[in-house]
Amino acid sequence: MTKDIARDAVLKKSEDVKGVEIRGYDFSKQFNLDEFIKAYGSTGFQASNLAKAIEIIKKMRKNKATIFLAYTSNMVTSGVREVIAFLTKNRFVDILVTTGGGVEEDIIKCYKPFILGRFEADGAELRRKGINRTGNIFIPNDRYIQFEKIMNRFFKKLLERQKKEERVFTISELVHELGKEVSDENSIYYWASKNNIPVFCPTLTDGSIGDMLYFFRKDNPEFKVDIAKDIVNLNDMALNAEKSGVIILGSGPIKHHVSNANLFRDGSDYAVYINSVLEFDGSDSGARPEEAVSWGKIKPDADRIKVYGDATIIFPLIVASVFGKQG
Q1: Where in the sequence numbering do the catalytic residues fall?
Q2: SS in 3 state form for 172-208?
Q3: CATH number for the domain including 150?
Q4: CB 90 within 8 A of CB 325
Q5: What is the domain range of residue 50?
Q6: Is residue 122 part of a domain?
Q7: How many CA atoms lie within 13 A of 208 on its CB side?
Q8: Torsion sign (Cα): 98, 101, 107, 112
Q9: How many domains in the chain?
Q10: Helix (H, G, I), strand (E, B) or coil at 39
């Protein structure tokens, strides 16, 4: 009797399950990138979520959705900068949302590169040498010294226009004008300015640009930047979109800024999140798309997925699959 109970517990009868058979890529065949990425769909775990993200973004393009691409500054610190610049150059995205660091680091790289370093580098030693570290990327302080000179000239030019035209520039207008100041075709904002793709930056002052604004305002207290008009413009763009698709690399203010704009249209039609944050603490950063549905930021019937992981690995694979052939 005891044996039968144990056997029934261990070998419990199951119902039949229909669906995709779990199977990885067959490397015994000649390598094919399209087939390789397609195999992610049957691999399981986050690989299958990545495959679903690719299909959702393909639907965004097929159905001509207005695509919001939001990304944190570390994406620009890394080589994902060039990936975003590619999308912007080819008008594959319609609206960009980023942080202060996501603006300034792109401009800094137009003049001097960042250098691959080490995660375990000694912080005190780097500080002594005037080298800043973001993960395993080194950013010598001379980049910021040069950036200050660039921004001082730029702010003076903007202040002169503010007085002459009797207007206050929005942050998106500021970034648009800043993009005109550079000629590096690897720059996101060079192409955003050329292609009139708006760039919204709700946290412009949280970084080196904020430092430069602090010093500049000390000498020029009349200099102003308008944040109110930008929120109207962003919300209107979401509201007026026939279809809305959001791609969010990272979390924090950029994630919520795009999501909240889509609340005004009762939610986006498509949503792809890529980040490594968990939801246990109730933060919006770690929240899954299902939570956004409860707020009306994503439609209940929307195609949606969150891919957990490092966007520097995941996003280039998506772009290679969806946009890499430029159409």
Answers
A1: 297
A2: HHHHHHHHCCCCCCCCHHHHHHHCCCCEEEEECCCCH
A3: 3.40.910.10
A4: no
A5: 27-112+141-322
A6: no
A7: 23
A8: negative
A9: 1
A10: helix
Question: Which pair of tokens denotes residue 20?
Answer: 């995709």
Q: Report if residue 269 sits inside a domain.
A: yes
Name 258's Cβ contacts closer than 8 Å, sequence gap at least 6. 68, 70, 97, 246, 248
Q: How would you label 26-50 residue by residue, b for 16+ Cβ within 10 Å and e otherwise?
A: eeeeeeeeeebbebbbbbeebbbbb
How many CB atoms neighbour CB 309 within 10 A?
A: 16
The verdict on residue 20 lying in a domain is: no
Provide the CA 130 distance to its chain's centre, in angstroms: 28
50 to each of 79, 127, 305, how far by Cα in Å? 20, 38, 9
Examine residue 191 and state whether it is found in any structural domain, yes or no.
yes
In this structure, which amino acid lies at residue 201?
C
Rg of the Cα atoms in the chain: 23
Walk along the chain (327 residues) and give the pLDDT tens digit of each residue: 688 888 888 998 999 999 999 999 999 999 998 999 999 999 999 999 999 999 999 999 999 999 999 999 999 999 999 999 999 999 999 999 999 999 999 999 999 999 999 999 999 999 999 999 999 999 999 999 999 999 999 999 999 999 999 999 999 999 999 999 999 999 999 999 999 999 999 999 999 999 999 999 999 999 999 999 999 999 999 999 999 999 999 999 999 999 999 999 999 999 999 999 999 999 999 999 999 999 999 999 999 999 999 999 999 999 999 998 654
